[in-house]
Amino acid sequence: MADLPDLTATEMLAALERGETTSRQLVAASLERIDALDGRVRAFLSTRGDDALAEAEAVDRRRAAGEAVGPLAGIPVAVKDNLCTADGAPTTCASRMLADFRAPYDAAVVSALRDAGAVIVGKTNLDEFAMGSSTENSAFEPTRNPWDLDRVPGGSSGGSAAAVAARMVPLALGSDTGGSIRQPASLCGVVGLKPTYGRVSRYGLVAFASSLDQIGPLARTAEDAALLLQTVAGHDPRDATSVDRAVPDYAAAVREADVAGLKVGVPREFFGRGLDAEVERLVRAAVQAYEDAGATVSEVSLPHSAYAVEAYYLVATAEASSNLARYDGAHYGHRSADHQDMIDMYCRSRAEGFGPEVKRRIMLGTFALSSGYYDAYYLKALKVRRLIKQDFDAAFARVDCIMGPACPTAAFRLGEKTDDPLSMYLLDIYTTSANLATIPGVSVPCGFTPGGLPVGLQIMSDVFTEHRLLALASVLQRTTDAHRRLPPLLGDGDGGKGATP
Amino acid sequence: MGIERSEVAKVARLARIAMSDRELDTFSDQLSRILDYFDKLSELDTADVEPLSHALPVANVFRDDTPGKSLPVDDALSNAPERTATAFKVPRVLDEGSSA
Q: ipTM, 2 decimals?
């Protein structure tokens, strides 16, 4: 058997059921790998070793006694640090504002993980308050890409993507507002899925942009991502935007995946200026693989996608300025030591607690909503949002899914884009449309650049068709072995080099 | 369309974020460039387009008006920078002669 942490979650569950390993062994192996590698990767902001081992042992006892155990029982998982966990670990959102914040309740998805028997081993790093595309905006430190430690893992769920890519855990939860699951999944060579808006409860997800945020799975395989999505999807009365709609059997969809007769649309606007030639080559090769497997590929047009980044940064920052108004030093979070009155307390606490990118976005959002500018900026962006959604509705009348790149580049070096906020925003060019239109999207590894850096194929489909995305992702994974390659960090001689077969 | 430094200072006041002169300068520059980029949206004719806030027709999500479980007071106060037995302690709110 391979090293325990190199197993997928699905393989771990089979091994547990056959009695070939125990949850304690799995969790201990995960913690050992974190210990060995996280000094260099910095995927985790906090870990809970002793508590995790105790939980693992409890699952082992239940299994041994023949008691019923949940669908993820005994599997080590990681959770992005903008998800509330009430087990004593902090929930920091990678911000000085919440550095010592201890959530008094579990997020809905965290409760779901615990009920399923999963063992949370730690909280992962992110761009502060989920604002960023490289995890360099973390107030604590940047996470490194396991494929090249001088490069970024992407963001904002960079910690979760890196933890999975470095095989510290087989499963992690991230959040995606403008691409924050799909883009780091692409840069780290893992599967990352953003569900339809309303598919997964946002209760306990620290809000960034309430009409765009969604929580989703990161894993090495589509099969594993399906397992995790199944656990967290579903209606929650505590989230008024969550949708009361049956959750399909995602594992069955993956097992029965078949692309014969499937219609794939490739948007011409996603293959223009700014797309790296190497990324384009790998993405087009992946689309070809679907055609070879029996799909019909045609060109589609999403004309308003050219405006998606602008519309996104206006809508998201406006919503963020409202959501982050609660951090004022009064009820929780950082309070400045030195203030003259209440308003001064607000102003200083926020100045001290927030990093520059968070301040920038709050300022943009406040401006876009302010008197005299509301119509030209925020309202205009909401109208453009409808035009973007209409483009997708028209496309999905003709095709079953849309394929293209997840990110214009592979992983870039730390510090390369931090001087120019706008150049960082443009990394979201292919991902923001899905959040604006509320449709689901997945990034699946489709190969490596000659320099050994992963590239992801993004697939989008109509609302509540995550089963189709997972099935399609699994089909690609039958034809490439991109997801089986080991990062050089893990000591495999030929990892990280060479092009895809 | 750039943004005047005085406007940035006004926005900072609205957003309740204290800012140094140097920060105001840097943010003015950055925000101007970003807002110039956003002007691209004005190319689009949206006169007859309805705004979209949620793509799903979710509206008026109600529950019965019956009391349920809520967070115990101590849990709710557990992260308070300053507290009394049952309340968050904050600087005086109302003060004659102070402007908000």
A: 0.92
